[in-house]
Amino acid sequence: MSYRLDITFHGPHQQFRYRIEHLLFSVRIGSRDDPMTASLIEGKPIADEIRKELRERIARLKEKGVVPGLAVVLVGEDAASQTYVRMKGKASEELGMYSQTILKPINFPEEELLRLIDGLNADPTVHGILVQLPLPPHIDERKVLVRIDPRKDVDAFHPINVGKILIGDHSGFMPATPYGIQEMLIRSGNPPTGKHVVILGRSNIVGKPLAAMLMQKDERANATVTICHSKTRNLADITRTADILISAMGAGAAFVTADMVKPGVVVIDVGSNRVPDKSSPRGYRLAGDVDFEAVKLKALAITPVPGGVGPMTIVMLMRNTVKAAEMMLEQ
Ligand code: GUN
Questions:
Q1: Whose CA is nearest to atom 11 of ligand 1?
Q2: Is ligand 1 within 6 A of the CB of residue 75?
Q3: Are residues 188 and 75 both part of a single domain?
Q4: What is the pLDDT of residues 54-95, one digit of tens each?
Q5: What gap in Å lies between CA 251 and CA 229, rounded to an integer?
Q6: pLDDT at 132
């Protein structure tokens, strides 16, 4: 049996509040043989807090006559992409931002897509531009991403913004998923400073930018970072040294098992896998890359799937769009 004291400190400083929660989360009473259960790092309350901060920033922009605007472009009819694009438009509108969703058929020519981006680059009502990936095979993704004005590149996929992340220049943007993970770590009272962060996955969307962000000489980072990937040898030997383990490899449900982590680890699960489940009306349930039930007995804190990183990503995109609008106003 184990006990845990959950107390929320309602102080004026939200970051402080989470730190206090975490300290108390770590207070557990139990015998040595008793399995511990990790505290949950849930995305929704953190995302709600950030939305509240954004509403204030949006209100200040509106007082100056600026409504932050986000244009989302989707080429083709991929069902998952359609859902993401709808969610991004809805999230913009809920915050009182201007939202433009542009849907084009799968055979939309690359040249026309580039011209469409030129138009959005020149449109003063649009502060953020996002072209949903993946694009159909006849379109060169890199050509498209570099066409977006870096000042409107709220996805942070343009090489200028990628470079700024690497050199720690905060005048650019950070991609939504890594940005959300950094925010979750800090606001849940698990700051990366001095920790060994092991990232599973080297994608341009999550693994690589996250590594660059967390290794910066910066109070929000200062981590020792190791990236592992599909060709890494002795993976479990490395993951067992992680103070913070971030799984973003898309390796499949329950890839990260309890024997791969050390006691007291903080686990961030970016995985999203469909697991057949006859008891669900959809016939499947969502699961991350981590064997949640087993790992939570060893971890200090862990994100659930769904309900962990997922709710953070769209709100961080909104934050980038608000930042883009603020920067344009200052120019
Ligand atoms: N497809 C999957 N994730 C993303 C993302 O973060 N941005 C864009 N543009 N496309 C995606």
A1: 133
A2: no
A3: no
A4: 999 999 999 999 999 999 999 999 999 999 999 999 999 999
A5: 10
A6: 98
Give residues with Cβ within 8 angstroms of 230, minimum separation 6: 249, 251
At 211-233, the pLDDT tens digits run 999 999 999 999 999 999 999 99
185: domain CATH number is: 3.40.50.720
Pocket test for ligand 1, best of 129, 133, 314, 316 (most atoms within 8 A of CB): 133
The sign of the CA dihedral 276, 277, 280, 285 is negative
Other CB atoms within 10 Å distance of the CB of residue 59 = 10
User: Is the CB of 188 within 6 Å of ligand 1?
Assistant: no
C-alpha 81 – ligand 1 centre gap (Å): 8
- 221 domain residue, yes or no: yes
Radius of gyration from C-alpha coordinates of the chain: 21
CB-ligand 1 contact for 155 (6 Å cutoff): yes
Binned at pLDDT 50, 70 and 90, residue 27 comes out as very low
pLDDT, tens digit, for every residue of 287-304? 999 999 999 999 999 999
Round to whole Å and give the CA distance between 197 and 202.
14
Ligand 1 near 132 CB (within 6 A):
yes
Mutational pocket test of ligand 1: of 117, 132, 154, 179, the residue with most ligand atoms within 8 Å of the beta carbon: 132
186 in the same domain as 90? no
